[in-house]
Hints:
The complex is a heterotrimer of chains A (327), B (286) and C (245). With 327 residues, chain A is an all-alpha fold. Chain A contains 17 helices and two strands. A two-stranded antiparallel ribbon of chain A has the order 1-2. The radius of gyration of chain A is 20 Å and the shape is globular. Helices cover 74% and strands 3% of the residues of chain B. Chain C is α/β, with parallel strands linked by helices. Chain C has one domain (4-243): Rossmann fold. In chain C, the strands form two sheets. A six-stranded mixed sheet of chain C has the order 6-7-8-3-9-10, sandwiched between helices. In chain C, strands 2-1-4-5 form a four-stranded antiparallel sheet, covered by helices on one side. The radius of gyration of chain C is 18 Å and the shape is globular. The chains are: A mainly alpha (327), B mainly alpha (286), C alpha/beta (245). Chains in contact: A-B, A-C. The interface between A and C is medium-sized, with 27 and 37 residues.
Amino acid sequence: MKRLAIVAALAVLATLPLWVRGTFYVNIASQILLYAIFALGVNVLAGYAGLVSLGHAGLFGVAAYTGAKILTGGYGHVVVDTAALAVTVAAAAVFAMLALRGTGLGFVMITVALGQIVWGVAYRWISLTNGDNGISITGRPRPFGLSLASPHSFYWATFVVFLTAILSMAVFVASPFGASVRGTRDQPRRMTALGYHVWMIRFVAFLFSGWWSGVAGLLYLYYNEFVSPQAVALTASAEALLMVIAGGTGTLLGPIVGAALVVVIKNVASAYIERWNFVLGAVFVIIVVFMPDGLVPGVARLARRVSVVLRSGPRMATTATRDETSR
Amino acid sequence: MSLWLLLAVNSITLGGLLFLLSAGFSLIFGLMRIPNLTHGSFFMLGAYLSTSLIARGLDFWTAAVLSGLGVAVFGGIVERLILRRLPGAELAQVLVTLGLSFMVADVCLMVWTGDPIRIDTPSALRGTTSVLGLDFPRYRLAVSLVAVVFAAGLWALLERTRLGAMIRAGVDDPSMARVVGIRVSRLFTIVFCLGAWLAGFAGVIGGPILSVYPGLDAEMLPLALVVVILGGSGSLLGSFVGSFIVGFLYNFGQAMFPELAYVVLFLPMLIVLVVRPRGLFGRQAA
Amino acid sequence: MSALAVRGLEKHFGGLRVTAAVDLAVEAGERRLIIGPNGAGKTTLFNLITGELRPDHGAITLFGADITRVPARRRAHLGIGRTYQIITLFPRDTLSHNVMLSLLALMPLRWSPFVRLDRQTALVAAARAVLTRVGLDHLAERPLTQTSYGERRRVEIAMALAQNPRVLLLDEPFAGLSIEERRDVLALVTGIPRDVTIVMIEHDMDVALDFAERISVLHFGEVVMEGTRTEVVAHPRTREIYLGE
């Protein structure tokens, strides 16, 4: 049943440009997918390793800026992408070595500092990054000679990358390494006593997370054909975290739903609602206070409760769901 | 006046402002372990409120105190209605206060529009005074003085009053404090409101120097963060020393290494976090 | 050569001496009980042995090998297993998954990001076997949150047994259990073969005394008495320590 739903959803996504009217919405869809990849990357740490980073826009930005710099240096896309991702993973290694010195809140603060340093460089080191004016690139890549200039073709290319990301995440989650990452989230002390190298597990998870954040950063660069310090600001990291939290940490669907929610509010709702920042903040607050597990588990819980009520009457609902709260 | 001297004076002034801003943040974090990312918004909100009060004819200092009060009331509501529902959930508190800061920023944009607003220096403090043969801007001296006065006052509050003793106990050992019978929840609200008042008041005091504009909150918050991390949370002395260190780092960094301005600011914070998570004077690690 | 020996072990927290020049030697296959009033430093001693805490002075040897400097994460690989006073299991997972995590910890497979964990039939079967040993195989697919406290205590022990430790440290394994549950856990623990050396911390004298061969009494971080069960029980100092001086 679940497998059928997944296949159906993927089929819908794959054929999206064929049945959606207007390039505006196809572009929205491309954005949703690229931010979903970013959110999935952040989720590896926040959801599966229990390490909340408010500095991941720094890695996203390192990839985008490195890509932009090398591209404007005249190199081909293969070189650009490889180099940008290599630099991003190296940056993730540095981030990890510093951030893992702290736990809990200390970790968050260190990632904030790291993200701000990257932002500071993007904003102030004008000779390197062109500061607030950003860097423009001349065109999107042409994989196998195919042009990605049109919204449709860009969407399909992004979709392919998105599929790869989802697949790698699914494999990661089901693997022994994925299980050990989750173990370090739930009982780090015990994991050490059992014989796991908790620091190394977190470090590798950070690299994996950084890789996908970098991929998303490159997609962002190619989508906009432009990068500016906006992409590296604290608000960008916060939005990524919001996507993860809103959708639900520790699931694969959650970050995707969260990304869709945030992108839609930012782009579509802002056409109708003037104060979209307010809405974003309010959504943040409401979800954190009322649905701390995020939308996906929250809605799933709601759905379960509804189905129990429908099947056997209101009284059953309270006993059936007590198990979930007996933690 | 030479450039360096001017920079030094500005650094001391900024340090004073930062002290008012971060003392509250440090207390809130030290006592309640809440990383209040809305603190920058408190600063900005206070400044904006005062512009409206001054426009209605209130004098500068009254407006400052009343704006602080307005922000304190807002802070109290936030603490009671929202933060109280998330005890100990640090991540949730980070996210909620971040979300609130988005909301406040947008509301300010809505009410006061996007144009920067100047707050005029109170007339009594315009111009310069001569000290030791050099001319110092009067207002900046005044700000530094106010900061010192408040530092002394806060110190007296913490060291000499019962309330202060309870706060210190709560910072040192929250569970023990509860056991001993301290009304922790009421204490939390008081401290949060006090911190909010200080931030709002600081926003007004800083007005003649910084003006008030959208984005002020996002500029001040990281500075407060660096101060508290450097100085150590829950420590008044830490906030005091840290504020002036950051004031100097920020101004001299901007002047000497404009391209690396933020690196100069955040690198020490990073080093402290990594090498000595407690900060210079703090009691618990961040 | 003792299975586990501790020499001159010291640990200070600020000005407080939590572990004070402790000398202890447990022979292979022995059943040692460590008793002492609250705050005597029993769990701290365990934490020092497992490496969670670093001693300020002293040495720890395992079958003659000095492990004082060995990092905590390596000690499980050397054969030290332990259970915790407060249950520290993985709440979001099934019993089977909990035990598999324990088994996986000592296998190179734990680093693999490619294979599916739940398809590792040998591992799943091994986890089943361990759960059978503690009488919980019928609950293998039950999430931990849906088990009783007594069942979780047994899972704690299963986690440690899964790794075939040479030395097993049990920290208050009977805490909070009903009379019947205590009997079950005692049977479980006495059933452990002699190739495992067991050191137990316990407060409940009735059950623990049945189990112990030798007893060490800890008080204010020092070993104040050691001997066979009969010797220690008969000694008037034991009563003094427990009822206050």
